[in-house]
Amino acid sequence: MRALDSAESSLRRPSFLGLSQPALAATTVCMTSAATLSGAFAQTVTASQDPPQGDGKAEQITVTGVRALVNDKLPTGLQDAPQSINVIDQQLLKDQGTTRLQDALKNVPGITFNSGEGAARGDTVNLRGFSAFNDFFLDGIRDAAVYTRDSFDLDQVEVLKGPSAVLFGRGSTGGVINQVSKAPTLAPLYAGTVSAGTNSLFRGTADVNEPLTATSAIRLNAMAESSDVADRDIAHNERWGVAPSYALGLGTPTTLTFSYLHQEENNVPDFGIPFINGQPAPVSRSSFYGLTSDQNTARDDIATIRVRHEFSRALSVSDTLRLASYMFGYRFNSPNFGATAPTATTPLSAIRVGHDEPSSQGAQTNLTNQTDVTARFATGPVDHIVTVGAEFSRQTSNIGRFNNPFNKNNNFIPMTPLLSPDPNEVAPPEGIASQQNTTAYSSAGYLTDTIQIGPYVDVIGGVRYDRFAASYNQYTLATATTLHLDHVDHETSPRAAIVIKPDDTQSYYFSYGTSFDPSAEALTLTTKTAGLSPVEAKTYEVGGKTSWLGGMFNVTGALFHTEVDNAQTNDPDNPTITTLAGDQRVRGFELGINGYITPAWEIYAGYTYLDAKTIRSGTAAFVGKVLQNVARNSGSLFTEYNINDDWMVGGGANWVGHRFADFGEQANLPGYVTFNAVASYQLNDNVKLQVNATNLLDKKYYDAAYYTSAAENHVVPGAGRTVIFSTAFTF
Question: For residues 690 and 627, what is the distance between their CA atoms, to the nearest angstrom?
């Protein structure tokens, strides 16, 4: 076998992407100027400051538009969907001053954040107790988790909780996170924002929508940002992006949409501080144990074509074709104690911290085609909504990994004092260690039938068949050897539910769903995992959804129980072998409210309780312990009040209870509550001024963590108090 296309000649030290400050500033100014000057020829569009009448903002949460998930996957809509769904709409994103998807997800209780090593980049979260790293979707198509998702092109965010394999295929043990992109409309829009913040933030966005004919329109969204992290030394973020889209046939039975997303980022990543004796090290929040030369870069290009045709109100078909390329490079230093961790008696002044420096560069490509056919018909007194679909994808991953100058016994970067870390040490050159190539093919067919027995009862059944095949090659330069592994999975995923609807304002449901996680889900294999079957999970959920005040105010609740019966674990008789002998269980409940209490007062709030435990494991110390990075209690609140047509004030809180960063309950993450506030003033029909403050009381808390042992771990402090001033232009 060839040495994977001459790895040594094709791979060098990471050639990281760059974004200069002058270029960033110029891009932002140009975007803002374009949005402002467009007012000279734009039709004036004035957004109402009052809640919608009759079908209030709470009703607007229902997903609409040419790329809506609910239209294709859940044809009965949110109210009658038999699972918990959180929707964060564009107005909430704007009011909170959201710039990243990760910030938007703080509105969803039951989500916690992870900090990874190596392949774990981008947005890494737990949802309902399980990792959702591979469960991100963009307009219903799987999205690679290797970049920081900015909110500039988001219309809304949908979080579907619980296993959803019948809808999305592999993954989704805790749920899925779907991003809905902004799409062209027939209403002219010329908008932009300029923001500056106490975290050295400088950000500009533009959103221009131009109807071209009575049935076509073009839309362009753009963004550029440079920012630090409040009270964290060295850490820095730079990114920019553009997202043009073009739609034909708007308002007609046939709609054709072309969209493209390009985003680049060049960050100094933050891997926080070490744990010492099971607690975050007692050091300043600003302490930084990486190097100023650390980098994490990404360049993403996502092109999508979607066609949808309605033959009649009873029959529609849609097809989505996407080609996505995700390029990345990273070189970072995370704290590590090497072979020996400090003990409880080690003086802090004597502790020195090493630099663990994994580095790689590579690319992932996804080619996906998804077809859905929805038919509505009757068989006697029973109505049916049947969705039949097929999905095919090809994914490739090509990663070059570089030698890590750090190991447990030798540290080629001088260790730094715990109490006075030096970020200016020089990292030695890194030679090429290996190249890893993976190609995965996925094919699936699925069918769901919503049987409507009169106006009061829906019975829902569905099944999906998936075939997932992966071929993995790893070439190691030191030994000039190639490891080749193949793996194929065949999985059938059922779903069943019943929905009771006493009237149009309430529904109650019981549902059963499954999920599976192949061993090659992350596009990698090892000799320990290549022979393993998928990890499987099942969830039972009962819940209710009610609407009040003429549809202006919604209350939801759910009880759920999720079981993973064959989690990967070490063989207790031979720890070098991985087996499917682990059992995990998460049970809990959640409550949510959203909508208008009065025409001027809006609220969005939720609470989640999770009882998450390891039931069986090859590591005896894990049995009966809480699952990694799961908070028993979590909640969020955001409310705003329109004082008059011009002034709005609001605020909220995020609560995350105590967590353990590991499966053995050795690393503690204290619970915390942070408070946020917002105020805005509508200066005139075209200009709005807004100020957002996050972590208002400057709480010291820990946002994310990684823990494999007392010597190898880190915990990332959350950002300190941050105030952002924004000016929004709309014409």
Answer: 40
**Residue 269 is which amino acid?**
P
Instruction: Report, in angstroms and rounded to the nearest whole number, the Rg of the chain calculated over CA atoms.
Output: 25
Q: Which domain holds residue 168?
A: 7-260+290-364+390-730
Cα 103 to Cα 113: distance, rounded to the nearest angstrom: 11
> Which of 29-33, 285-289, 453-457, 672-676 has the weakest average pLDDT?
29-33
Average pLDDT score over residue span 308-332:
95
CATH label of the domain that carries residue 79: 2.40.170.20
Does residue 122 fall inside a structural domain?
Answer: yes
Cβ-contact 728, 722 below 8 angstroms: no
Strands (E), 26-145: 85-89, 111-114, 125-127, 130-131, 136-138, 141-142
**pTM of the full structure:** 0.89
Give the C-alpha separation, 154 to 247, whole Å: 17
- Give a yes or no: residue 372 inside a domain: no
Buried b (16+ CB within 10 A) or exposed e, 63-79: bebbbbbbbbbbbbebb
Picking from 204, 244, 236, 245, the residue whose alpha carbon sits closest to that of residue 223 is: 204
Sheet holding 154-161, edge to edge: 85-89, 154-161, 175-181, 136-138, 141-142
Q: Which residue has the tokens 């059944």?
A: 461
Residue 121 confidence class, pLDDT cut points 50, 70, 90: low
Are residues 237 and 303 in contact, defined by beta-carbon separation less than 8 angstroms? no
Contact 703, 123 (CB under 8 A): no
Give, in order, the Cα–Cα distances in Å from 429 to each of 103, 404, 406, 413, 421: 36, 10, 12, 11, 21
User: Tokens 């900090």 sit at which residue?
Assistant: 115
Largest CA distance in the chain: 81
The string of pLDDT tens digits covering residues 573-584 is 555 566 777 899
Q: Which pLDDT score is estimated for 410? A: 53
How distant, in Å, are the alpha carbons of 287, 297, 643 from that of 720? 13, 24, 29
Structure tokens at 154: 């988001």
Residue 373 placed within a domain: no
- Cα–Cα distance measured from residue 600 to residue 646, given in angstroms and rounded to the nearest whole number: 12
Beta-carbon count within 10 A of 363 CB: 17
pLDDT at 70 over 90: no
DSSP summary character for residue 625: P
Alpha carbons 408 and 166: distance in angstroms, whole number: 44
Looking at residue 113, its pLDDT comes to 87
**Which is nearest to 627 in space by CA: 617, 608, 614, 616?**
614
User: Quick check: helix, strand or coil at residue 162?
Assistant: coil
| % of the chain with per-residue pLDDT over 90 | 73
DSSP letter (8 states) at residue 712? B
Closest to 132 measured CA to CA, from 105, 151, 97: 105
Is the CB of residue 403 less than 8 Å from the CB of residue 432? yes
Indicate whether 568 belongs to any domain: yes
Residue type, 270: D
Number of domains in the chain: 1
Nearest to 612 by CA among 102, 105, 107, 131: 131
Burial class (CB in 10 A: 0-12, 13-18, 19+), 321: middle
DSSP state, residue 106: G
